[in-house]
Design a protein that fits this description.
Length: 380
Amino acid sequence: MAKQDYYDLLGVTRDADGDAIKKAFRKLAMKFHPDKNPGDKAAEHKFKELNEAYDVLKDDQKRAAYDRFGHAAFEHGMGGRPGGAGGFDFSATNFADIFDEMFSEFVGGGRRGQQARARGADLRYNLTIDLHDAFAGKQTTVRVPGTISCEACHGSGGEKGAQPVSCPTCRGSGRTRASQGFFTIERACQTCGGSGRVIEKACKVCSGSGRTRKEKTLSVGIPPGVEDGTRIRLAGEGEAGMNGAPPGDLYIFLTIATHPIFRRDGSDLHCRMPIPMVTAALGGNVEVPNIDGTRVRLSIPGGAQTGQQFRMRGKGMSVLRSPARGDMYVELTVETPVNLTKQQQELLRQFEAAGKGKTHSPQSESFFSKVRDFWEDLKD
C-alpha cells in the first residue's frame, strides 16, 4: 500500500513554514493520540503516520530530501533505518520527545520562539524619603534611565513597523541540524539566533532591536505607613522587550532617612525630651511635637526623673493599609541648669541646707547607702 504524502497527511501546503506544520501536527496528534482512542488500532496507526510525517517535515535537511526524492529518501539504503515505518523508530521514547517538544508550551515550557518574545529586564530604583513622608504618604516623581519601545517602528524592529518574518534558514523552528557521522547535532539557528523569526529590513532608529534608550519621568504613590525596605512595583515600567516583547517591571526600594526627633520602632515612635530641673521637681505641662505636625500637651508630675517614659496612645506612625496608628513614647531627660548667677547658686545652697534630714533625692541616697555597705563588706 502506497504511503500518503506527508504534506497531505498533515493537511498543509508544500510551502508551509515550520509554525504552520507544527500547528497542524499538534491538532491532529491530539485527535488521534492513543490515550484518547484506547484500543483503536486505526487511530494508533494514524498517530504513528502523523509522527513520521512531522519528524521529517520539521527537520530542514530531511524535508529537503523528502521534497526531492519523496518517501524513497528514507527507505533502507538511503540513510533510513531498516524496518519500521519508513525507517523510523516509533518507540515510547520518541513519542515522549515529540510531545515534550510540541506540548510543553501549554505548561510554560515552550522553548522555541521564546527568545524573540523574552520580556524586558526588571529595573531597581532606590528612593530615600523622610519619616514624615512615610507617615503621611506622598505622591512623588522619579527619573529613571532605561529603554522604551522604539517609536519609529512601534517596537517591531522592522523599518516602518514591518513585522518579523519566519526565518528562511530554519523555517521558523529556531533550530538547525547537522549530521556528523552517526550523530545528528541540533543547535540554535545562527541566522535568527534561535528565535525562528528575522527582520528583513531593520529599523534605522533602533537598529532592529525594537527599543531605544530614554529617561522616563514616572509618578510614584507612596502609601502611608511604609517601612524601611518597602518595595513598590510599577508594572511595565522596566526595560522594553526586544522586538516588541513585553516590558519588565520597575521596583522602587524605599529607604527612610533618620529623623532628628523621632526614632521609629514598627508602628511606634520614641522621643527623648529634655525638661528643666524645676519642671521635673515641681511638675507642669509641656508641649510634645507630633509626627503629624501638631502639638500634644503632656502633663509632667512633680518629682519626675530622667528615663521616665510616658505613653501617648494613637500618636505614633500610620499602619500600612489600616486607619490605625501606633503609640508615641516620650522619655524624659532632666536637664541640670548651667551658667548660674551668684544669686542662683546661693539660692540652691539655701535649698540644700533647708532640706537637711529630709529625703529629697531617694535614688542618690539609695545608691550611696549601697556603696557604704559594699565598702564595709570589703573591710570585714
